[in-house]
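Let's do one together. I've listed all components of the complex below, 1006 residues spread over two lines.
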Amino acid sequence: MSSQVSTSANGQPVLGEQREPVKETRRLDRVIIRFAGDSGDGMQLTGDRFTSETASFGNDLSTLPNFPAEIRAPAGTLPGVSSFQLHFADHDILTPGDAPDVLVAMNPAALKANIADVPRGAEVIVNTDEFTKRAMTKVGYPASPLEDGSLAAYAVHPVPLTTLTVEALKDFPLSRKEAERSKNMFALGLLSWMYHRPTEGTERFLRSKFAKKPELAEANVTAFRAGWNFGETTEDFAVSYEVAPATKAFPPGTYRNISGNLALSYGLVAASRQADLPLFLGSYPITPASDILHELSRHKNFGVRTFQAEDEIAGIGAALGAAFGGALGVTTTSGPGVALKSETIGLAVSLELPLLVIDIQRGGPSTGLPTKTEQADLLQAMYGRNGEAPVPIIAPATPGDCFNAAMEAARIALAYRTPVFLLSDGYLANGSEPWRVPDVAELPDLRVRFATAPNHDGEFWPYLRDPETLARPWAVPGTPGLEHRIGGIEKQDGTGNISYDPANHDHMVRTRQAKIDGITVPDIVVDDPEDRARTLVLGWGSTYGPITAAVRRVRGAGGAVAQAHLRHLNPFPRNLGEVLGRYDNVLVPEMNLGQLAHLLRAKYLVDARSYTQVTGLPFKAEQLARAIAAIENGTQEESADV
Amino acid sequence: MSEAPAVEHPAAGLPALAALSLVPKAGAPQSMKDFKTDQEVRWCPGCGDYAVLAAVQSFMPELGLARENVVFISGIGCSSRFPYYMNTYGMHSIHGRAPAIATGLAASRRDLSVWVVTGDGDALSIGGNHLIHALRRNVNLKILLFNNRIYGLTKGQYSPTSEIGKITKSTPMGSLDAPFNPVSLAIGAEASFVARTIDSDRKHLQSVLREAAAHSGTALVEIYQNCNIFNDGAFDALKDRSSAEEAVIRLEHGQPILFGADRSKGVVRDRATGDLKVIDTTVHGTADVLVHDAHAASPTTAFALSRLADPDTLHHTPIGVLRSVDRPVYDTQMSDQLQQAAEQQGKGDLAALLAGKDTWTVVG
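Okay, and this is what the predicted structure of the assembly comes out as:
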């Protein structure tokens, strides 16, 4: 294990694990691990750390954090189970994986909630200390699953994780309860040994996280190392595994691991810099969007203003006010927040000012499933306003792609003076993948020209449009001679004066629609390597990974299927109708009840077929592959078998 | 957007105001007509809004600010048409949301003088949440709340300031809900500046505007405004020469709170309850009469003053500046944090941000 493909930022090798394992090592091309425990067990942190180790090792990876909305659900219960799934490989992969090869279950609830997803033959590591009679009864185990033979199909590793952790920390001045908290680091150490992960990053992370409490930092590092050493010495773990870096999966470049919300935040900062406009975020905390507010609040040295408003309406209102003043105005939210912002989005349509509305979709309706993913806000973004109020819509395909989507949303908003929807979702927001760090010098130029002089016979007409884009001039307060008034009441074209004239209203409604319809967006690209497919699978947003993985499986089995993915949902790419017309079958997998399919059927009179799932979880590649095969065989499935 | 430095211009009618120090000054003396637009004013004939508009238009030249750096933002309602008639930048927004929109503008552009025009329904009903939060944040906004105690634009329903039992189209047997007292509400919401004035008293209105403009932070000015169509005469008790003397208490900072014919009435503190009460000074003398202190750190007395008026008869209604205190200003502090971050972390380096701390390199 010494292939040196990667170096850390400071040029030091991060590979080449110093401790040569003495046991048998097997080489694997990919592994799916799921960490599962109580909400308070630190499973998300454990998963994050394993992900960082894996990213710095150079594997391709994809993650799926899955946690309850309750901050601390009652301990040891099924609703309180929190999990983190990580798929990593020596080649390029697209999803967090369908079924785990290894399940780490920190208590009976975690075992019970997850074992159904684990295929026979997989490894199951259980923390035996938590399998008390009381804990097992709480989740409905009449007898210990570790003893009654119900896990016979799995390679079970019973490990007294809690006891071993407490024992390892006996020299620290910690109470038993405090020492027990480090059991997730013990588990991480064990898994790090099993899969030859580099350990320096985690040790550095722990020392920095607990910088103010060095004894806690050392305790956690000790637990982490104890877990590693346990793997190395115990006979129960006879084999460790190597997954080589995915050298061929990545074009040359500098890489880092990134989540969707982080990439989106960076995309906003980058857009602000490329537009040379200050960034103003007006937001109200809501899951799963809040991390963007948190992240942007850390970057005030970029001139970023973040405003935590009194409600969703004030969040977007302040962003729109800042846009009036010449800022790049942004509001971030999730579905229920969009509902509250609708009236202000309509105002922004009427004012024709640039504004980014970022919706991190979650399960609905109403409060729905706050921490789970869904794509069911498409029609809300498309139509959820009074009157004819068209708004462009952009959707990122992967966590890293959230960066590009934010830049693209800003481009459209600034060039066309319009609010723009960006539809991410909970899966993209919290999931992560390796991301090639873009070269700042190659980012697009988003600069705009503010109006500086009268534009009509010595007067300033705020609604005199650019003939190409139909955008109106953006004249910011402070510009002498261009004083003007705008508002939500219908405007006379050109002058911007209040007008109730029927013909003018008809003209303005059609003009606002024409402006959005005329936005230049790239053509959709179809992937059909053999050019003989009769079926097109068309997706949008976060289904990109599962759909692409499924298409690979179908092709791997000899099938021919074409794939295309929509980034622009309003307006659609100009060539979309022509593309749809080329295929006998169009299959549209969506995590809703068929919203994109509905739009396609209405606009193109095409017999688009839906394949839908609204479980709060992403599609599995295997299941999508079956659906694609079925449509080819004329036995279409309409929804996921859940 | 860089903030323009303060420019002292001889045309500036007022001494340099800290609150407006970042707003560029006008290049030449201004007059009322500089602030009028070519738009036809479309309020009902006789509406109190005309008087307020004229008072504001004739007051603005005093500030001597560059017109292009003045912005009026309104919500929805009769008064919210105001920006169309001011030859400045303006936005007629949506119902209740003007304080939120103005907050975003004022927080990101400290070189602007931002004014919000709103009504009792707009500010206290649909937009109540935004109003209280703007006040507690102390953003540099001047909020003119036109209170006519009725919904005008929707043709005459009772409003959150209507007296109990109000007979309107939506309350044919009389309204049931207790009204808000906007001044009490504002003081409760931690407002740093609260004043009240009357549409028909231009001199008083302008004196209050002057103090509001000079205030750093959010200033709330309640303007009693007559709706001659749906609630005519609502404030006659304060306007009618014969009754006004007894009904109106004119507050002036540093002056004893005396009113009535021959200043025969005064406001004193009730020793038993700590509350305020009105006494006859011809009987009790003026020794105990309170001296108005608008700058008192505690809002207690200002709040008590705001409760003196009888909501039904309007007797003992204080007008003038009830409270004006210095408190950190939101947009100033926001700006300071940006500067502090740049000093501590260095000006943002995008390439470094994108790369983060844990990268690896793939060589071809």
